[in-house]
Amino acid sequence: MIRVLIADDHHVVRRGLLFFLKTQKDIEVIGEAQNGKEAVALTSELKPDIVLMDLVMPELDGIQATKRIKAKFPDTQVLMLTSFSDSDHVIPAIEAGAAGYQLKDIEPDELVTSIRRIMAGENTLHPQATTQLIKSREMQEDLPHMKHTLTPRERDVLAELTKGKSNREIASSLFVTEKTVKTHISNIFSKLEVQDRTQAALYAVKHGLTESSEQQ
């Protein structure tokens, strides 16, 4: 079972999420938080696998709550579920440690898929969030160095990872084994000094590393 905590200051939103998620055989909603401070407290108490986190909440916003949760409970994953798709919200959320970023207009089935993908260690970003990341090209001065640090195959894997593909899909696309993909991803994390696939994807779009070595 995937144990989920819902954090949103709107009762109607929490009720809607609870109603749908309860129909999923592999998902259990173990608690609800009305604000960021309560989300941190309930995470400490209940130890959920995933927190569905709103961004704008009283007492403590979703970004600050995510930072506290990831600092104390690194194994708990956070999926941002919000109405904001601008870079001022997307980038701080990912940098805070969110494993995914989805908008509240997401189809219910897609939300469940996102939860399962995050549980499987994959990143999940709404297309609008991805667009905002691509538009935000920061730290360009590090790009020449990073191109030489990553091997051509690692850049290929990173480009596929940024598209949100699973290890199996990357392996199929590049005609290698899943074990090889896992090794490349481990090397990428180490070289980029990131903790997960979402942060690696964020780094890639910031530095213009979203194309494979064959396209460059």
List the SSEs and their pairings.
Elements: E1 2-7, H1 11-21, E2 27-33, H2 36-46, E3 50-53, H3 62-72, E4 77-82, H4 87-96, E5 100-103, H5 108-119, E6 124-125, H6 127-135, H7 143-149, H8 152-162, H9 167-174, H10 178-192, H11 197-206
Parallel strand pairs: 1-2, 1-3, 3-4, 4-5, 5-6
Strand order of the largest sheet: 2-1-3-4-5-6
| Strand content bin | 5-15%
Number of helices: 11
DSSP strand count: 6
Give a quick account of the main beta sheet: strands, pairing sense, barrel closure.
6 strands, parallel
Spell out the CATH superfamily of the largest domain. Answer: Response regulator
Distance between the termini: 43 Å
Described by the principal axes of the CA atoms, the overall outline is globular
- Domain unit count: 2
Q: Estimate the helix proportion, in percent.
A: 40-55%
Low-confidence stretches: 137-144
Radius of gyration: 17 Å
Q: For this structure, what is the CATH class of the largest domain? A: Alpha Beta
Domain HTH luxR-type: 143-208
GO molecular function, one term: DNA binding
InterPro entries: CheY-like_superfamily, NreC/VraR/RcsB-like_REC, Sig_transdc_resp-reg_C-effctor, Sig_transdc_resp-reg_receiver, Tscrpt_reg_LuxR_C, WalR-like
Keywords: DNA-binding, Phosphoprotein, Transcription, Transcription regulation
